[in-house]
Amino acid sequence: MKQFRRMTYPYIVWALILIVAPMLLILLYAFTKPGNSVVVTKLTLENFTRFFSDRLFAKILLRSVRVAAVTTIVCLLVGYFPAYYIAKCSERFKMSWVLIITFPTWINLLVRTYAWIGILDDKGIVNTILGWIGLGPYKMMYTEFAVILGMVYNFLPFMILQIYTSLTKMDGSLIEAANDLGASPVQAFLRVTLPLSLPGIISGITLVFLPAVSSFCIPSMLGGGNYMLVGNMIEQYFLGAGDWNFGSALSLIMALITILSLYIAKRMDTTEKGDAKA
Q1: Residue 62 contacts residue 228 (beta carbons within 8 Å)
Q2: What's the number of domains the chain is made of?
Q3: What CA–CA distance (Å, rounded) separates 202 from 275?
Q4: Residue 80, φ and ψ in degrees, nearest 5
Q5: In degrees rounded to 5, what are phi and psi of residue 39?
Q6: Cα distance between residue 57 and residue 143, in whole Å
Q7: pTM for this structure?
Q8: Domain extent at residue 228
Q9: I want to staple 86 with a disulfide (CB 3.0 to 4.6 A). Which of 50, 97, 103, 214 is the partner?
């Protein structure tokens, strides 16, 4: 046991340096403002007051939550049935489909997102095809549509894999029992399959919503800097304006939103597990 504890020491030190220390610095900067020198600082709530008193910041926060929610819903609607199909495939083809789903994630996020610029551009592939049939061109780049599409493309595998994992753990005899009791395929899906897949759905929602609400790379590239979300605002204040105090306050607000989202997801998951046991 002592030897096992000693083996954990390097990981504890690593976590303290790379996780705990940066979070403490963000906390310090969020509740302080520069004094007369670099060392001297003053405790204040001015950074948070500034955020909640300016309607522009609240508007950007609500836009970020809305875009993340739309992205999550689209990923759920698009990803559920592919996950269901893969779970029902024979063992011979399951891993092949999982490999196909995860293959795009092997490519760097910047490269994947940059590829959409050539697809959605005014003279890109989509508008060229639409022009051939007399339906285009349409303005797609630097719009909310492009941002949501880029997020759905990048985060969809996380939704599919979570639901697929949940469905593979389901006891197939429950569907057979539902059919023996006279349930139609639709009734069996709604009353058996869907409830049992809720843990995977909740996990997928968490893994999609959290990176979507704090994303800054995708909105920056596909939004062209004209469509700002909270992640872009944090980047701007840290790297552009050099206002680390206000940027830290924004980061702390986003961290609280993330913790609240995780708490809600955990409560929902616990509730579903309790209902299943009952």
Answers
A1: no
A2: 1
A3: 15
A4: -65, -50
A5: -80, -45
A6: 19
A7: 0.82
A8: 55-277
A9: 97
How many Cβ atoms sit within 10 Å of the Cβ of residue 27?
A: 15
Contact 195, 222 (CB under 8 A): no
Residue 151 domain-assigned (yes or no): yes
Q: Show the tokens assigned to 208.
A: 């999609």
CA distance 159 to 165: 10
What is the rounded distance in angstroms from the CA atom of residue 236 to the CA atom of residue 58?
A: 16
Beta bridge partners of 41: 34
CB 127 within 8 A of CB 209: no
Q: Taking Cα atoms as reference points, which of 36, 45, 56, 59 lies closest to residue 245? A: 45
Compute CA distances 227 → 79, 230, 240, whole Å.
26, 10, 17
* 82 within domain boundaries: yes
Tokens (6 digits) for 120: 């959605």
Q: What is the pLDDT of residues 194-244, one digit of tens each?
A: 888 998 999 999 999 988 988 888 998 898 777 788 888 888 888 878 888
Q: DSSP readout, 201-215?
A: HHHHHHHHHHHHHT-
